[in-house]
Amino acid sequence: MLRVVLIGAGNVATCIGRALCRQGHQPLAVYSRSQSSAQSLGQLLGCDWTTDKRALPAADLYLVSVKDDAIGDCLQGMSFGNGVLAHTAGSVDMRILEPYAKHIGVFYPLQTFSKSEEVDFTKITAYIEAKDNVSKNTLLSFATILQTKVREVDSARRGQLHLAAVFACNFANHMCTLAGDLLNEAGLPFEDLLPLIDETVGKLHRLPPVEAQTGPAVRGDQGVQQQHLAKLDQQKAEIYRLISESIYRHAQL
Amino acid sequence: MLRVVLIGAGNVATCIGRALCRQGHQPLAVYSRSQSSAQSLGQLLGCDWTTDKRALPAADLYLVSVKDDAIGDCLQGMSFGNGVLAHTAGSVDMRILEPYAKHIGVFYPLQTFSKSEEVDFTKITAYIEAKDNVSKNTLLSFATILQTKVREVDSARRGQLHLAAVFACNFANHMCTLAGDLLNEAGLPFEDLLPLIDETVGKLHRLPPVEAQTGPAVRGDQGVQQQHLAKLDQQKAEIYRLISESIYRHAQL
After folding, report:
1. Residue A239 to residue B242, Cβ atoms within 8 A
2. What is the ipTM of this complex?
């Protein structure tokens, strides 16, 4: 039985902790700087919790899920013995962990995490990186417990993956925000777009996105595009023009 | 029983025709300029088909689903008697139909249509516009047959809706194309992003998109953004910068 300590009590730690419990693998303990966060996650998972850096129990895996720029400060003053220390961040180099432990690695589950929502780890991929075989085997065991698919990537490729996720998740979501603004101006509810959005994503399961592309930009339909640009404020018009050009360019490749 | 003639045999006409048949309301006939298109849709729906503008049967509703800039040419030389003539386009003003029939209207089902895929009309909204009560009642009867939700909008608001759909569907899809490019550079498959994309859209069913927004731009995380910009070519960098600014601005509202 892999002994796991969660460092951090935010969205990622909460979702991973709950998934471990669902698999019957309770974490050993939760650490957080904030007592209320540590306590509430510890109670949720039915395990020990602490705010004392010196009180971490001996474990096989210490999983750090705190904000990217807080990782160093957080680990300062902790001891990990022969345990593996791994972080869960997309854009942070594994080497940030080198000053703190002998066995280090990364376990980056590619998903958007909210405390309130259960994550189905069997459907996602965790991108792992390990400095040595001890770290690698521990991370693979951990992935097996979560029943998560695993792919090994180095920090550079993981960074690229995170960048791709920003486009596909964060930027795609913002396109929906702008669509919502436009509907709002016409007194129409955002919900009316949901079946269209669902179908747009449904197609991505069957076709590469460049083949699923529809609309005036890919058709090179200048008439409709001019009509649309005339309705947009300067900032939305700039986005419209830039993305439409990019769509058209991709269609010519 | 509403007598319907479909004018056009493309994606929209095919999906509407099949949905009518599923509801036990076979169209009376299909018209298309192209014999092979008219014939294949007629046979698919088990109804008459013609390429002769003078051979349209008397009907209650003539539904035109041809390319936006082909509507005028297509209708030239047809007679609609007391039937209602309606088109299905997002960005075309209803008044384009005025020269051709007494009773006119618009029936714009907000969805992306492909011949190969069944559309569930019970889940979508049709935006209707009618010049008079005859048109309106006929379009409402038609929506009832398809079990489609209905909202009345004028041509200006419908244009705004189509513009919003370009952002939420066409532009969001292109964000996935760019993400696919970035993954490809790292030798990673697009499929790995699908669970993340599915969850991004899943959240839109529960939260307004501005509240569902995550990522470095909304957090104002300049460190990660600079790291990302350094990895992008000029065109992607320009898109990244513009959208990130827009995300940040929306978060301050």
Report:
1. yes
2. 0.86
